[in-house]
Amino acid sequence: MTGMGVLYDYFRAADDGAAIALMDDLVGGPSALADNGGDIDVVDLKGLDFTVILGQLVALARGVPWHAGLVGNNLIWSGDDGEGPWLLSLDDATRDTLASIDDSRLPELSTQWGQIEELSSSGPPPKSEVRGIIELIAGLAKRARHAGDHLYCWCSL
């Protein structure tokens, strides 16, 4: 749906310390850790950034206009040279909004979100693909909220 560039993995952890501790074990991001049998609940969303693309899903779910600061985040870790990868905590309001997406809203949100410029620049993506992404990130958020965990975003060039 989007071009490659920056990669984004979204995962849950109990707190910033637990999320940062994972960074010592990572080569290739949280998804690579999970693929190699690591115990991490992660969703690999490739080039879907939290500010614009995920932020627009959050805006649609809340029924509010999107703006750049909608998804609260805080940089909590970066690679030794400062050039990545980076780890950001996402605010609990974002987690709770995503966790509140239920199956009855999936058709509407899939249609609306699939029409944003960042996802449809080369034509509208298949609704089933958009719905699948929403189900993945909403599922992660639901599990995080249920466990009292927080959402994090690992990104890398």
Summarize the structure.
The chain is α+β, with helices and mostly antiparallel strands and 157 residues long. 41% of the residues lie in helices and 18% in strands. It is built from seven helices and five strands.
Description:
Strands 2-1-5-4-3 form a five-stranded antiparallel β-sheet. It has helices at residues 16-22, 30-35, 53-62, 92-99, 106-114, 117-120, 127-147; strands at residues 7-13, 42-44, 73-78, 86-90, 150-156. The protein is of the alpha+beta class.
Beta-strand percentage range: 15-25%
Computed structural class:
alpha+beta
Q: How many whole angstroms does the radius of gyration measure?
A: 15 Å
Adjacency order of strands in the biggest sheet? 2-1-5-4-3
Unreliable segments of 5+ consecutive residues: none
Shape: globular
Number of strands: 5
**What portion of residues is helical?**
40-55%
Compute the separation of the termini in Å.
Answer: 18 Å
Biggest sheet record: 5 strands, antiparallel
Mean pLDDT: 88
Task: Name the helix and strand elements from N-terminus to C-terminus, one letter apiece.
Answer: EHHEHEEHHHHE
How many helices? The count is 7
Secondary structure layout plus pairing:
Layout (H helix, E strand, L loop, with lengths): L6 E7 L2 H7 L7 H6 L6 E3 L8 H10 L10 E6 L7 E5 L1 H8 L6 H9 L2 H4 L6 H21 L2 E7 L1
Antiparallel strand pairs: 1-2, 1-5, 3-4, 4-5
Helix pairs in contact: 4-7, 5-7
Properties at a glance:
7 helices, alpha+beta, 157 residues, 41% helix, 5-stranded antiparallel sheet, 5 strands
